Amino acid sequence: MQSQLSNVLVVGGNPGQWTAEQRSYEAHYVNGVEAWVFALGGRYVHESLVTPRMIAESDLVIMNLNAIKEPKRLSKIRSLVEERPAHVQWMTLLEGDMQWYLKPLPHLRELFDASTFVNCINVHAEAFIQSLTSSPVHTLGIPYPAEGIRTFTTQPDQRDECVLICPFLRMRQNEYAIAKQLNLPIRGFERRLSVKPSTIMSNKRLYGSMFQRDLNKHYIDGILNNPKIDIHYETRLDMYYSQAGKAKLWLNLDDRYTWGRYVLDAAALGVPIISTVNTGHATKLFPDLTVDSPFAIDQAVLIARTLLNDPEFIQSVCDRAWEGLQEYTPERVTQRLWKILKK
User: Fold this and answer.
1) 151 C-beta neighbours (distance < 10 Å), count
2) How far is it, in rounded angstroms, from Cα 265 to Cα 32?
3) Which residue, 27, 42, 69, 332, has most beta carbons within 10 Å?
4) Considering only CA atoms, which of 227, 269, 228, 229 is closest in space to residue 248?
5) Contact 131, 108 (CB under 8 A)
């Protein structure tokens, strides 16, 4: 099967079009939907640029619906998948929060039904997504370059005595509620907002300022009332791994039902992470550090305090996570893909 798929097209929401060969320099650390391009030696194109001819020239199309919510755009994708040549296999990839699909959406069932299969990326949602379509649904996920990302690891004895809040700081404050009880410095990441005419009013509405360049820091200081938070700005993935991997503990009490790349990243970098059952990864990779819900503040604090006082416990949970992470490597994920397409 692999030899038969000589032309793979990955369609997503990030700009541009390129081939795996053209961007091979980042193949060892890309962990988003673009990882399929490198795993299969394919080609990437932005959703707005895809054409029927590109599809007809492909053996397999992987369509990421993460950024496609408007009925008009869904209708366009539905037409592309329904009208493709018979030889073209089609994976509809549902990145993002699976709760989005709880809302009835026009064209979605027909799009799913016309797909070879649907990749729902979160095991909790698989039965629900299957109820929406006659096509097979699998929690296949996204190939994860574990060995490459492992190279960015900071050795435990060289890590900073700090706690990393994984999501952007303005997204959730449950991680902050835990971190401030641990008596360790707090580190987090944010987007650096642009200051230009097109963003003036939205900046004013969301952040209370039109022109201040450091809007996120100003906003975070105001709502969390903690100017001592070590704020790093969004950067390239390789730089992010190096910076984030220096923290002693990660916190990610995610309320979404999504792919959960923070958990995979922590496993690759050998950093313990406290996360929720919402992502299927946490219970597999860090079962001793998984809490019941995004509101389980006391449970998370207790786990964190136990962990931080026991280096052997840290080592054991990280060793187990690395072993479990092998299930998500490009080799293992593509093997499962071939089995699905053979059915």
Assistant:
1) 14
2) 12
3) 42
4) 269
5) no
Q: Read off φ and ψ for residue 12, nearest 5 degrees.
A: -145, -170
Q: For tokens 């795993």, name the residue.
A: 39
Grouping H, G, I as helix, E, B as strand and the rest as coil, residue 28 is coil
DSSP 160-185: EEEEEE-S-TTT-SHHHHHHTTTTS-
- Residue pair 143/330 in contact by the 8 Å Cβ criterion: yes
CA distance 2 to 340: 12
Global pTM value: 0.91
Q: Token pair of 162, please?
A: 């700090």
Distance of CA 271 to the CA centre of its chain: 17
Instruction: Confirm if 295 and 314 have CB atoms less than 8 A apart.
Output: no
Residue 283 CB coordination number (10 Å): 16
Burial 218-247 (b: 16+ CB within 10 A, else e): ebbeeebeeeebebeeeeeebebbbbbbbb
Is the pLDDT assigned to residue 158 strictly greater than 50?
A: yes
297-308 and 311-325 are packed helices; what angle lies between their axes, rounded to 10 degrees? 110
304: region left, alpha or beta (phi > 0 left; psi from -120 to 50 alpha): alpha
**Predicted confidence (pLDDT) per residue in 44-88, tens digit:** 999 999 999 999 999 999 999 986 778 888 999 999 999 999 999
The residues facing 160 across adjacent strands are 247
pLDDT(114) > 60: yes
